[in-house]
Design goal:
Elements (H helix, E strand, L loop, with lengths): L8 H12 L4 H8 L3 H11 L29 H8 L10
Length: 93
């Protein structure tokens, strides 16, 4: 039966610091000379988490969406197509 590993404070610090910097579990294991799964288990016990990645959301432009619904009658973008004249100033959609 395998013997229990004696974890040092230095190894725990390496796990927490590297994981906090966004390193993979495999990279941390290579640095410590341990298997990836061993480091994952210890990291979970230490609650060493990777930094949160923020998603960048593009601004949604309804007019560029090919699946948008039809524009209402008299909409400023289609007014000239139907009447051949510019959209009236101060008009409401």
């Amino acid at each position: 039966m395998p013997q229990a590993r004696e974890w040092t404070a230095a190894a725990d610090t390496v796990i927490c610091n590297m994981r906090g910097a966004g390193e993979t579990w495999a990279a941390i294991g290579r640095r410590l000379g341990l298997s990836r799964n061993t480091v994952i288990e210890r990291g979970r016990r230490l609650r060493a988490a990777a930094p949160v990645k923020l998603a960048i959301v593009k601004e949604y432009d309804m007019m560029d969406d090919p699946n948008r619904g039809p524009l209402p009658a008299g909409h400023p973008l289609t007014w000239g197509l139907l009447s051949g004249e510019p959209y009236p100033a101060g008009g409401e959609v």
